[in-house]
# Entry
Amino acid sequence: MKTKIIIMLAIIAFFFQNFSFVNLLDKKFLIDEPARKTHAQEILGKKYRKSALSKIEGEKFLHVYIYDIVNQRLPKKFKNKSKDITKAIIQESKKYEMDPLFIMSVIATESSFNPEAKGTSGEIGLMQLMPETGKEVAQKVKEHWQGTMTLKDPIKNIRIGAAYLNQLRNYFDNNPSKYISAYNSGIGKIRKIAKSEDLPKIYPTKILKYYEALYKKIVSNKVPDNLAIN
# Structure
């Protein structure tokens, strides 16, 4: 009984530590659970049921865990933007019916959550977008384009990056091996590859590694069902 009380106090402390930043009941932060689950199953296929992702089904506080991960991973100078970045990830995932943890996995792989990251080929920001790609996508989704400064804004970078992921997903008929590879290699290169076994393996493997690692982190901190706050 004493152990249970200690666990409960720790859980309450965790949630109320984050409550002022991410309101537990604010609809702007709540996850589209059916879309999250459908996209997770699309990404993992038969591996879904045995993965950490399946253990989060119906989790009430997933948005709080997402905020906690974002806040931990951002560089110190950007921690004051944790709330806005969390909201952007969740809102864009809802818009495109994606798993917000998938968008976070791309961010983790591309920039390690550093909004100031610069790629060797000219990629910019959290989702490491090329200016040419960023401009084209921004125009399609009516995001005001102000040159490379647009991609240096972490919120706009997420909006444009998520829109680009959605375009690739639609183009490749929801085939995760192809649209994940295309995010790194480009549509043209992946379009030329006829067989799935010939697709690039390194980049998609990195994405999935982060994807499952983020879920394992959440599962390890998950509120036990019998202690959940109603």
Remarks:
- Residues 104 and 167 are 17 Å apart (CA to CA).
- The chain has one domain: 2-223.
